């Protein structure tokens, strides 16, 4: 009887009581449930250890419409920057035509602060948006695949951000072991919650 009374009091405190302490406990419980039940369960269903990631950079943004993004010269072709190349020219040099790109997922890119839902990194193809871990970087990189190279059992990918002018050195040979998943769905803006929370922790010295 005492146990039943105790459980009833706990239930009332969590779900009915309107107090700051009750709110803090609710937030804590939500964090525990999401981190240890929902997140792993979703990862198991989607075949990836990271089913949800927040976009923390602008490297995949398209600041203008597609036609302008594809054709407007915006990237320096020389160190003096006296000649500029468009993203379209850069991609065509990698063997990707405009028509092919229009069949890729996320042809308009995505923005810092978006949430991306990931699926298994198996069967990655050119044009997919791949999330992977890079050496020395704490956060996953989420960029578009420009090429897939196979040598025996070894498969490597080259990636580039849609808003970047070239692949970084660490993007030229991304291995299957580094791959986390490919982006299949976008939730705009929701990632700003995580970004803001991380920035807050940095400000108060906890990161």
Care to describe what's here?
With 207 residues, this protein is an alpha+beta fold. It has two domains: 46 residues, no CATH class; 148 residues, no CATH class. It is built from six helices and nine strands; from the N terminus they run ααβαββααββββββα. The strands form two sheets. Strands 1-4-9-5-6-7-8 form a seven-stranded antiparallel sheet. A hairpin with a 2-residue loop joins β6 and β7. The longest helix is centred in the first third of the chain and has 27 residues. 20% of the residues are buried. The model has no long low-confidence stretch (mean pLDDT 87).
Topology:
Layout: H1 2-15, H2 20-46, E1 52-54, H3 66-71, E2 73-76, E3 84-86, H4 87-93, H5 98-102, E4 115-119, E5 129-132, E6 141-151, E7 154-160, E8 174-175, E9 179-187, H6 192-203
Antiparallel strand pairs: 1-4, 2-3, 4-9, 5-6, 5-9, 6-7, 7-8
In short:
The protein is of the alpha+beta class.
**End-to-end distance, in Å?**
46 Å
Oligomer: single chain
Using only C-alpha atoms, the radius of gyration works out to: 22 Å
Structural class: alpha+beta
The strands making up the biggest β-sheet line up spatially as: 1-4-9-5-6-7-8
The average pLDDT value, as a whole number, equals 87
Q: Low-confidence spans: pLDDT under 50, at least 5 residues?
A: none
DSSP, total strands: 9
Structural domain count: 2
- Provide the succession of SSEs: HHEHEEHHEEEEEEH
Q: Total number of helical segments?
A: 6
Strand content: 15-25%
Largest sheet: 7 strands, antiparallel
Q: What characteristic shape results from the CA principal axes?
A: elongated
Task: Please bin the fraction of helical residues.
Answer: 25-40%
């Amino acid at each position: 009887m005492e146990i039943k009374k105790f459980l009833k009091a706990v239930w009332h405190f969590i779900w009915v009581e309107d107090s700051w302490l009750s709110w803090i406990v609710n937030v804590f419980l939500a964090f525990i449930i999401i981190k240890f039940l929902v997140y792993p369960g979703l990862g198991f269903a989607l075949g990836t250890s990271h089913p949800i990631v927040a976009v923390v950079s602008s490297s995949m943004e398209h600041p203008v419409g597609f036609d302008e993004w594809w054709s407007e010269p915006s990237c320096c072709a020389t160190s003096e920057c006296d000649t500029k190349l468009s993203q379209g020219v850069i991609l065509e040099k990698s063997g990707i035509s405009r028509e092919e790109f229009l069949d890729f997922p996320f042809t308009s890119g995505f923005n810092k602060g978006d949430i991306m839902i990931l699926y298994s990194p198996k069967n990655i193809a050119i044009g997919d948006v791949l999330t992977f871990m890079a050496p020395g970087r704490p956060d996953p990189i989420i960029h578009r695949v420009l090429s897939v190279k196979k040598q025996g059992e070894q498969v490597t990918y080259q990636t580039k951000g849609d808003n970047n002018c070239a692949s970084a050195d660490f993007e030229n040979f991304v291995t299957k072991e580094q791959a986390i998943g490919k982006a299949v769905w976008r939730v705009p803006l929701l990632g700003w919650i995580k970004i803001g929370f991380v920035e807050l922790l940095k400000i108060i010295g906890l990161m």
